[in-house]
């Protein structure tokens, strides 16, 4: 059987890490694409040269033209620019919206059957724009945010409690911003929901509140430390988990930015919700029941995403 093909649009910090992880996990052959000449080629060759050491078989190539992504099974998009000092949210939105239009055209022409995972920020608006620009089926275009936000939540809990990260499950829904919704009732340690852990005295409410706050600001914490860029290891690992679930039909239930058409009372928007990912892309949106507090948090988060989508429509009325 021919190997699967994974195309990475954007070969920066996250793109390079994605390529390396895809190789280590033998998910398929990898094409790195970027507008910067030499960067995707150099990173591809460098990773290929590591393959004899780690013992994985995969081809790596770099490209500056979209023809190279032809027939890709999975496409992961990180193309864009990060927010720089002095740049307004709308400036960033305008620049990356244009990038999504270009990438969308490339997908439409060369990889219309791919499962597409968008990582470019502001995530919920960019994945929405990418789906519109590409015209690909809505169940085949998703955004990566919830797996990362939940991983941060899980890591902070495991660290605080001194338990294995494997036994901590957590769910963070909503938009990928400070208004994200870490769901305490649906997060567990060894199967025990967090509110019960507080009752048992294993975790104080104050500590839990602090962890929730740290999770919400997790991206900013890394930016403040790195100074010249944003997180890339954990975002790449998160997108690879989603790609693997699709390629291997694992049917994992993961929080992803998914297209909602009435689910959770939201229409024509991408918002983070639990979805089942298998060989058909997003095979199911899991609608969990919220209590009043969760509902209010989710609504606030959706409103923030709506604001971004409205701004996109103003910048480029073709998206309206
Ligand atoms: N087409 C293809 N590639 C592009 C384009 C474009 N139109 N515009 C920019 N790029 C490339 C850049 O050349 C760069 O190599 O996208 C890459 C982005 O890489 P980095 O700047 O290293 O950013 P990275 O840390 O990988 O993050 C990418 O993910 O988490 C989000 O906020 C983050 O939006 C950012 C994205």
UniProtKB/TrEMBL annotation:
Enzyme Commission number(s) from the entry: 1.1.1.37
Entry-linked Pfam families: Ldh_1_C, Ldh_1_N
Residues in Lactate/malate dehydrogenase C-terminal domain copies: 148-304
Catalytic residues in the record: 176 (proton acceptor)
GO MF: L-malate dehydrogenase (NAD+) activity
Sorted UniProt keywords: NAD, Oxidoreductase, Tricarboxylic acid cycle
CDD domains in the record: LDH-like_MDH
Binding site for NAD(+): 10-15, 34, 96, 119-121
Superkingdom classification of source: Bacteria
Residues making up the signal peptide according to the UniProt record: none
Reactions catalysed: (S)-malate + NAD(+) = oxaloacetate + NADH + H(+)
Enzyme class: oxidoreductase
InterPro entries assigned to the protein according to its UniProt record, in alphabetical order: L-lactate/malate_DH (IPR001557), Lactate/malate_DH_C (IPR022383), Lactate/malate_DH_N (IPR001236), Lactate_DH/Glyco_Ohase_4_C (IPR015955), Malate_DH_type3 (IPR011275), NAD(P)-bd_dom_sf (IPR036291)
Residue ranges of every copy of the Lactate/malate dehydrogenase N-terminal domain listed in the record: 5-143
Binding site for substrate: 83, 89, 121, 152
HAMAP family membership: Malate_dehydrog_3
Role summary: Catalyzes the reversible oxidation of malate to oxaloacetate.
Family to which this protein belongs: Belongs to the LDH/MDH superfamily. MDH type 3 family.
Record protein name field: Malate dehydrogenase
Organism of this sequence: Alsobacter ponti
